[in-house]
Design a protein that fits this description.
Blueprint lengths: L3 E4 L5 H9 L3 E3 L9 E4 L2 E4 L9 H8 L4 E4 L3 H9 L12 H12 L3 E8 L2 E11 L2 E9 L4 H16 L3 E5 L3 H4 L4 E4 H12 L7
Parallel strand pairs: 8-9
Antiparallel strand pairs: 1-3, 2-3, 4-9, 4-10, 5-6, 6-7, 7-8
Length: 204
């Protein structure tokens, strides 16, 4: 993993927000590792909101409204699901300390979840941190085909409607690239971040 990496045993919610404001975010080596470390990638993943791409097949699925999409109704359940192992993800970096920190940020109004529901069952979702006019995507999960993808589409639509300027994905994957995610060098990311944070904190 390229970029600065340093151990940080004591992270408060206030310190966590400060870290986001200067381009850092925390991770753990595994869900069972009690320690966290700061990450500052040399190349940062973002999705330019004006270049967000939805495939024809996904757009067709969305029109069928297969899920009830909700916001912030089950934040702790979403982060818990993101922390679970899956066939394509045998381990995750979300440990107990991360769950507690982001749950506190949620109650402070700085962490949010977008959720896909099938009746009373949570079948997909994502969560992240909002600060200024930036949203920092953290993780997503899916228990039904396209559930997390539809949550991402809803997230971007919501960000555009509310005037957000930066969607940070931290890293890029082939999955995110299909939506228009790109890698930008650290100096360019810092400029985009500064512009987004120059705005007052937007209500998500």
């Amino acid at each position: 993993m390229a970029g600065r990496r340093s151990r940080q045993p004591d992270i408060t919610p206030e310190l966590l927000l400060r870290a986001y404001s200067i381009g850092l975010f925390p991770m753990a080596d595994s869900a069972d590792d009690p320690e966290l470390f700061w990450v500052e990638p040399d190349m940062r993943g973002i999705i330019p909101l004006d270049k967000f791409h939805v495939s024809r097949s996904l757009a067709k699925t969305i029109r069928k409204k297969p899920f009830d999409i909700r916001v912030d109704t089950a934040f702790d359940a979403v982060i818990a699901a993101c922390a679970e192992a899956a066939p394509d993800r045998p381990s995750t970096w979300i440990n107990r300390k991360i769950k507690a920190l982001y749950s506190t940020l949620h109650h402070m109004g700085h962490a949010h979840s977008v959720e896909a529901w099938e009746g009373d069952h949570l079948v997909g979702g994502l969560y992240g941190v909002s600060l200024g006019a930036a949203f920092f995507g953290e993780s997503m999960f899916s228990r039904r085909t396209d559930a997390s993808k539809i949550c991402l589409v809803y997230l971007v639509e919501r960000m555009k409607a509310k005037g957000f300027r930066l969607l940070d994905t931290q890293f890029t994957t082939e999955h995110l690239k299909s939506f228009g995610a790109i890698d930008v060098p650290k100096h360019k990311y810092e400029d985009l971040l500064a512009r987004a944070l120059s705005s007052p904190h937007l209500r998500f």
